[in-house]
Design a protein that fits this description.
Largest sheet of chain A: 5 strands, parallel
Helix content of chain B: 40-55%
Number of strands of chain A: 5
Structural class of chain B: alpha/beta
Number of helices of chain B: 17
Strand content of chain B: 5-15%
Distance between the termini of chain B: 52 Å
Shape of chain B: globular
Low-confidence stretches of chain B: none
Distance between the termini of chain A: 38 Å
Oligomer: heterodimer
Strand content of chain A: 5-15%
Radius of gyration of chain B: 23 Å
Number of strands of chain B: 20
Number of helices of chain A: 9
Order of helices and strands of chain A: HHHHEHEHEHEHEH
Largest sheet of chain B: 5 strands, parallel
Radius of gyration of chain A: 18 Å
Low-confidence stretches of chain A: none
Mean pLDDT of chain B: 96
């Protein structure tokens, strides 16, 4: 019974049906399945399949986003249940993410934020055109161990370097890993400006983030 | 008969316009510019000052459509009309504001510098198929704060053709206007015979940023034409259904027309844009996609229904090198845009999602543009009767090559390509070095740039332009400008 319920949750994520994910999650709770088991046995495998299907070219961005939204809704239901049991979901990491100063491109950054959130990261999305100090302040406030910097223009990508320098100046650089992304950004640029990593798309960003915080 | 492309049925056009107007009432348009909000409120729009949203009633939109300019010309620097906005006339200019140039030596992108843009400007002057210049590259050898005006400064030293430009900041628009005023010989002269049009870009969905809205207001006030560049991304920042994306475009452009007319009745505002499909795998904005072309042609039809001058970003490719994809994508947009009768089609030379200029692609695109212009001239009878008199004379003979009739008409009827297009036999092609189109294009770039003749701009005027630009550069911590090729450290 419980295997069947969890399989349904997994399938609902793969099918991109957030209502079914939510419904399945509630049913699983009602059936007495532990929240952690729902996450690890139902939701996480579903997101993994969706990520694999995207990477193989079978799925497209709307599939990713809809599944991530199902995951997020299910987690909102599960969070209080975890708390009631004095359990904590082992957070994959805490990320402060934003598009750097002078740049108002939102899509790529939001995709990464959504995917990180769906994969168990605590995400603080600062939005677009984010001042350097705002990154530093939020890292301080949240104790984040990861910073994601997006830039879509060659004229604004220097902002990524500025934020990294500001983090160093504030004495926070040892505490956080910094990943960068955006159309003009590549591995060489990431190396040049002293970032810890670069990812070419949202799925790769999740892999990168997972690797960076594991170190 | 001019062959014409219609993308939408007449009832669909009407519905799109009606829904576009409805969007301006609800949810309204976000206006992050204080002066525009005040103008809209004074005119009777319902303005939510906290949320910065203006709800514009239909009556204000209809009024604006009554008074907005239905046609106007852009002029060469020596005062001749060169581009007619209005009707179905089609013109082309290079895609603007590239952040990279495709280096023909390495076949990779790099940051363009002054000398690159000067070469592009000279090339455009020498390409008869291209009707207008554009501030096509952002040069990396000056401080970014003067990136916009520095392009115009360079161009004005070399051009005769009118120019499509734009400002990246509120304050730099004024410096650019100062340059244009100097070249035109005064503000009144500039308004009477505009030599430039400014691109102003609403942000999807339904937002006027402070900067671009101020540029629109300042253009309208100065009598300088503005080109609305509304850019719904179907499936990302706009609905994925194409008709709905066109509704969003309609609403954004109508709000721009309204703001222009509230500043000044009769302001010249072009119904333009740079919409795109959204690539659902890469998250990119393909300019060479069939859906991008369809949205462009559809909104142009809406603009024409409203009787407005039109513009679109078309004829670009997302390829990274000059390859089959590059040619294929550029051809589709160029031909369809011409058939749709879009007055100004920006994009020649542009690759990689509107971010990289290639001079070699530009000369290949010029051939495409030549063909597109030939296409829309259509097929005419030429003689009456069309063929009978000729056949009476020729019977079954096949030697039309020797006929005076052929000599009379061939240059008008046929398209005569430059050497960029290979029409040789295989042997001939081998003898000439067995080159690719990109290699022949590189040759032609060299030839055309070398054939450039200096523009009639006087030394005094060049000094004035340099002084204006140097003052701006100093303000942003750059003591001197890079030298201009041909003029040294003027």
């Amino acid at each position: 019974m419980s295997t069947e319920l969890l399989a349904k949750i997994t399938a609902s994520l793969v099918d991109g049906d957030p209502d079914a994910t939510l419904d399945g999650t509630r049913k699983a709770l009602a059936a007495g399945i532990e929240p952690l088991a729902i996450i690890e046995g139902g939701l996480v495998p579903g997101m993994r399949i969706v990520g694999d299907k995207y990477a193989s070219g079978e799925y497209f961005l709307p599939n990713l986003i809809v599944s991530a939204s199902g995951m997020k809704q299910a987690m909102a239901v599960l969070a209080p249940e975890l708390k009631a049991r004095r359990q904590e979901l082992k957070s994959a990491g805490t990320v402060v993410i934003g598009t750097v100063r002078g740049d108002i491109h939102e899509i790529g950054k939001s995709l990464v934020a959504t995917m990180l959130s769906a994969n168990g990261f605590e995400v603080h999305d600062l939005g677009v055109d984010v001042p350097i100090d705002a990154f530093v302040a939020r890292v301080k406030d949240t104790g984040a161990n990861l910073v994601g910097l997006s830039a879509l223009l060659t004229t604004t990508m220097h902002g990524q370097k500025d934020v990294i320098e500001a983090l160093s100046k504030a004495g926070l650089r040892d505490r956080v890993k910094v990943m960068v992304g955006g159309a003009p950004v590549n591995k060489k640029w990431a190396d040049d400006i002293g970032a810890d990593g670069w990812a070419q798309d949202a799925v790769a960003a999740v892999d990168l983030a997972t690797r960076l915080v594991a170190h | 008969m001019r062959p014409t492309l219609r993308m939408l049925s007449e009832p669909l056009v009407e519905q799109i316009i009606a829904e576009g107007m409805a969007l301006l009432r609800k949810p309204g348009v976000r206006v992050h510019n204080e002066e525009a909000r005040r103008l809209l409120a004074d005119a009777g729009a319902e303005v939510d000052q906290a949320r910065l949203v203006a709800r514009i009633p239909e009556r204000i939109v209809l009024q604006a459509l009554e008074t907005t300019a239905r046609e106007f010309d852009l002029f060469t620097l020596d005062g001749c009309p060169a581009v007619h906005y209005g009707g179905d006339q089609v013109h082309f200019d290079p895609g603007s504001a590239a952040l990279a140039i495709l280096d023909p030596e390495t076949n990779r992108q790099r940051v363009p510098v002054t000398a690159d843009f000067v070469r592009l400007v000279k090339l455009v002057e020498q390409l008869p198929q291209i009707d207008a210049q554009s501030t096509a590259m952002v040069c990396g050898d000056v401080v970014p704060e003067i990136g916009d005006l520095y392009r115009l400064y360079i161009a004005l030293n070399y051009i005769r053709k009118p120019i499509v430009t734009g400002a990246f900041r509120k304050d730099t628009w004024w410096i650019m206007k100062e340059m244009l005023t100097a070249v035109a010989g005064g503000e009144a002269a500039l308004a009477a015979k505009p030599i430039a049009v400014f691109d102003v870009c609403p942000s999807p969905p339904l937002l006027w940023s402070d900067l671009t809205c101020q540029n629109l207001i300042d253009c309208a006030r100065a009598g300088i034409p503005a080109e609305l560049v509304s850019m719904p991304l179907a499936g990302a920042t706009a609905p994925v259904t194409l008709a709905a994306a066109v509704v969003q475009h309609t609403a954004e452009c109508l709000s721009g027309i309204v703001i222009g007319q509230l500043v000044r009745l009769g302001a010249k505002v072009v119904w333009g844009g740079s919409p795109a499909a959204f690539d659902m795998r890469e998250g990119t904005t393909p300019m060479g996609d069939v859906v991008t072309w369809m949205i462009d042609c559809a909104y142009a039809q809406v603009g024409k229904r409203l009787g407005l001058p039109t513009h679109a970003y078309l004829g670009m490719s997302d390829a990274k090198v000059i390859d089959a994809q590059c040619g294929m994508e550029s051809a589709g947009g160029t031909l369809l845009g011409a058939l749709a009768g879009i007055n100004m089609i920006s994009g020649a030379g542009m690759m990689d999602f509107e971010s990289c200029q290639s001079l070699e692609k530009l000369v290949i695109d010029a051939e495409l543009i030549g063909m597109a212009k030939r296409l829309v001239r259509g097929i005419e009878p030429r003689d009456e009767p069309i063929a009978l008199s000729l056949f009476e004379k020729m019977g079954h003979r096949a030697d039309y090559l020797a006929e005076p009739h052929t000599l009379k008409w061939f240059a008008k009827e046929l398209y005569l390509p430059s050497p960029v297009i290979d029409r040789a036999t295989t042997d001939g092609w081998l003898r000439k070095g067995a080159t690719t189109a990109a290699e022949r294009a590189a040759d032609r770039v060299r030839t055309l740039v070398a054939s450039y003749q200096p523009s009639p701009v006087s030394q005094k005027l060049r000094d004035e332009l340099r002084a204006i630009t140097t003052t701006a550069a100093k303000k942003f911590g750059m003591p001197a400008l890079p030298p201009l090729p041909d003029f040294g450290l003027v």
